[in-house]
Amino acid sequence: MNAATEKLFPLLEPVLALARRHASEVDGEARFPTESVLALRESGLLGLTVPAESGGLGCGPLEFAEVVSALAAECGSTAMIYLMHVSATMPLARAAPAAMPGLLSDVATGKVLASLALSERGSRSHFWAPVSRAVAKGGMLRVRAEKSWVTSAGHADIYVASTLTEGADTVDLVTIPATTPGVTVSGDWHGLGLRGNASAPVTLDVELPSTARLGGAGGGFELLMETVLPWFNLGNAAVSTGLARAATDAAITHATAATFEHLEQSLSALPTIRAQLARMSIEVTGMRAMLRQTADALARQGEDTMLHVLGSKAAANDAALRVTDAAMRVCGGAAFSQHLGIDRYFRDARAGHVMAPTADALYDFYGKAVTGQPLF
User: Fold this and answer.
1) pTM of the predicted model, to two decimals?
2) How many helices (H) and strands (E) does the chain have?
3) Which end of the chain is more exposed for a tag (fewer CB within 10 A), N or C?
4) In whole angstroms, what is the distance from residue 323 CA to residue 345 CA?
5) pLDDT in tens, 92-139
6) 360/75 Cα distance (integer angstroms)
7) Are residues 325 and 235 located together in one domain of the fold?
8) Domain boundaries, position 162
């Protein structure tokens, strides 16, 4: 951790302890990590990136990445819930809805857990292209949408949702309190990985004041590309990095402790095992370096920022697949028996890989960017 993040450790450590204690249970039962999320609320870390003038901690991308990575090493589901909260908070900080003047302060105090409701059944993983359309009438907005894969569904206090602007092919972002009539969680989440993040479908059939919109009409796409995407990609890369680091640490510990009694040597005495561990460790070092580079690029907003944003998630997702796969092979049956936790890192890494924008889509965007083609 850098010096700034180390100052956050007294706030973070109790959250990490609870995440660690309940991670196996959260995964096994596919339940929401209530204990660690409550600790996040009480710690002030929900306001990590909220400006100080709104009562937040005023931290930047590097601190965010470090916190998410540390959470992921203990509980991937908790890390993803936190990542989605911050990704929803950042557009609120940039273009707060006039209908909710105290919202950022409530986020900073832990009163509000936020999440994104972007993907739709009709456009699937193309989260930037909703097919639902708002209808405006008398200062109100009617939003009907079938949202997919909404993290913290049924647990978040507000949802930042997307919809097409009435009468135009532009996008609006709106803030919807979870208690709004017409917000319905459509099912439970029982996935292969990240089993505790409550990523369920949400049906919206709501009426909102037009002032629930973030920014002006049609300004949602800019917020998605310039705010939501960079922070989400950075955080998702941080989740992959934390999972890969935890899998590597667990594999090293096991290989060092496990012994061949008939040979009187540890598993790590085998050159092939040491080579695998070395490759894993080197890969994690590279992931952490790229994560810091991306956080720095996002903080300074240079011409290369978008390349870092596009590349970080794709590269980290792929690296996490390789590292967690190697950890499973190094530890063999011990990994499959679940007591090492490596199987959880293995499954969680694969869930992050297919989250929109998927790694394959990001490679395409990156290729367009480096060849001078428009992304959309």
Assistant:
1) 0.96
2) 13, 9
3) C
4) 10
5) 999 999 999 999 999 999 999 999 999 998 888 888 899 999 999 999
6) 26
7) yes
8) 114-216
